[in-house]
Amino acid sequence: MTDWFSLSILLGLLSLDTTAVGQFMVSRAIVVGPLVGWILGDPGLGLALGALVELIWAGDLPVGSHLPLDTTLLAGVGTALAVGLVRTGVGPEAAVTYALCAGIPLAALSSEAENLLRKAYVRIVRQAQHQVEAGHLATFESVNVGILLSQWAKGWVTAALALAAAHGALRLFPNLPAEVISGLSYAPWFLMATGCAAALDLLVDPKHLIPLVVSVAAASGLVLFLHVPVLYLLPVSLFAGFFFSIVRIRRERRAA
Amino acid sequence: MSQPLTAGTRVNRYDLFLVYLRSFLLQSAWNFERGLNYGFAFALAPVLRKLYLESERPRSFQRHLEYFSTQPYLGAFILGAVVRMEIERAQADPSEAQRRAEEIHALKVGMMGPVAAMGDSLFWATYRPFCAILAVGLAFSGALPPGKYALLAPLVFLLVYNAGHLGIRTLGFQQGLLLGDQVVLSLRKYGFQEATQGLRLAASLALGVLIVLVNRPQDGPYPGLFLLKMTFFGAVLALYTFALRKKVGPSQVFYGVVLFALLLAYWPKLYGQTGAVGGFFPFMSPP
Question: Which residues of chain B does A97 touch, with a Cβ-Cβ cutoff of 8 Å?
Answer without folding.
Answer: 258, 261
